[in-house]
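Lecture 7, part B: from sequences to assemblies.

Below are the input chains for today's worked example.
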Amino acid sequence: MAHFWVAFASFGVAAMMAVMQALSRANAALPFRSPQIFYLSVTAHGVLMALVFTTFFIMGLGYVIARTTLGRELLSERLGWIGFVIALVGTVLTAGTILAGEATVLYTFYPPLKAHPLFYIGATLLVVGSWVWCLVMLRCYRAWRREHPDEPVPVAMHGIVATVIVWLLATIGVAAEMLFLLIPWSLGLKETVDPVLARTLFWWFGHPLVYFWLLPAYALWYSVLPRAVGGKLFSDPLARVVFILFILFSTPVGFHHQFMDPGIPTGWKLFHTVNTYAILLPSFITAFTVIASLEVAGRLKGATGWFDWIGKLPWREPFFSSIALAMLTFALGGFGGAINAAFGMNSMVHNTAWVQGHFHLTVGTAVALTFMGTSYYLLPRLTGKPLKFPSLASVQPYLWFVGMMTFSIVNHATGLTGMPRRIYDASYGGHPIAQAWQAWTGLSALGGVILFVSAMSFVLVVVATGLSRERQEAEPILYAEPLEPLPRRRPVWDRFGLWTAIAVLLIIAAYGYPLWSLINMERFGSPGFQPF
Ligand code: HEM
Ligand SMILES: [Cu+2]
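Predicted structure of the full complex, as structure tokens:
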């Protein structure tokens, strides 16, 4: 539970920052409105939401899944706590330097924007803490595997092991960036830094980071959701294939964030584009399998027509409605993602408000809303306390959905008309083009306010539940059975070593030569800048 509380706290703080930004973008006259505060808060919001909330939630979820699926004691619990403390210290250092105004570098921390060394050291500790978590997860899996050499591992745990592997491969990039470039440079040991090399290492990490968020959500969609709505998992092998495809294709795609960067040959950008389209496939399979599983649930409840099974699903149940709305939103986000990944269309939307519209659909809703719904499901089961304010909890996901649709559709639209993202003042001195955006930004601010109300409702429900003294018999956490019985033999999809080795080869193919040539180029580097 400790992990979840850190996650909820950072979510709450980040949501408060967000509403301010959304209003500021609409040029609302807020007290304390200034560029300094705006960029400070965008940095804090991005870091706390995308890095802290997600990482702590996923670590907590991993422990819950390992404990409940493997049917054995959690190994190395002490080690897990050490990882928790390291990650927490890192978070406090990073958040502290941001709030002190010493690290206004946004959550992508691109150099030559320069932060206080404690920002980079703190972020590194957060990653080190998560590595300890990975170690605990892998030890649990291996111990189970030794006891059950020939059985398929439960699907939820399969998803968590895949998450761990994706994360370990991804964080090599950011660890190298921190250790060799950013930390020595921020400490003053080096005068200059190479922005292209840093960005390349960042995106080695930055894209698979999104799968680190998404895979645990998928694990829940596949394994907990169908059971919670009274259905079955439509296909167990398809679920396993999906996780393996993510291990293979998560990392060698980073250049799709660098289409506009000089110094990377077009051919390599194309290679990463092709890989990016490969990774759309597992998301399509997921949409198919999970929706089929829900249809099974509806039919088990008596639906016979083409679409009447949809009405049989428990739309008032916040765990279900959160995930259903998250999936719907993710489908829209996926279409946008295909546009971002297309070399030509990317140049139209690059660094515009479109991008923030896009990732608030994907991580900001598909992942975050799934995690909120999961909190409603897990909290009573982990603490034995019934959920407080259940009607608020059933409205909250719908509020989030409405708020996010407003916020995000408007951002897609203003992005297409050219409004940049990450800007403090969108009025450009009253220029006519900028004025055309202005009406829209008001609407996006309205979306931001609805989102804020929803976020605070969520925080209220979980905090009130946590503080309540009521106790009841905790229900167990149940996982879905597959529609067809499981094979008795261990499937090839469980050979994690094999797939990881292939993934490493793909990464070497995708990054080996470009990195080698970047390092061997004549480089001049840049000194650091701290505009705010
Ligand atoms: C309370 C609901 C939320 C609102 C109102 C909101 C609003 C905003 C706004 C206005 C920005 C600044 C955009 C810009 O000027 O470029 C932003 C940035 C961002 N948001 Fe949110 N957001 C919310 C929830 C989330 C969630 C749940 C996540 C992820 C889990 C998230 C992740 C991010 C990230 C990564 C950035 C980018 C920061 C940067 O550009 O460095 N947001 N958000
Ligand atoms: Cu990406």
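Note for the exam: The chain has a mean pLDDT of 91. Keep this in mind when comparing with the next example.
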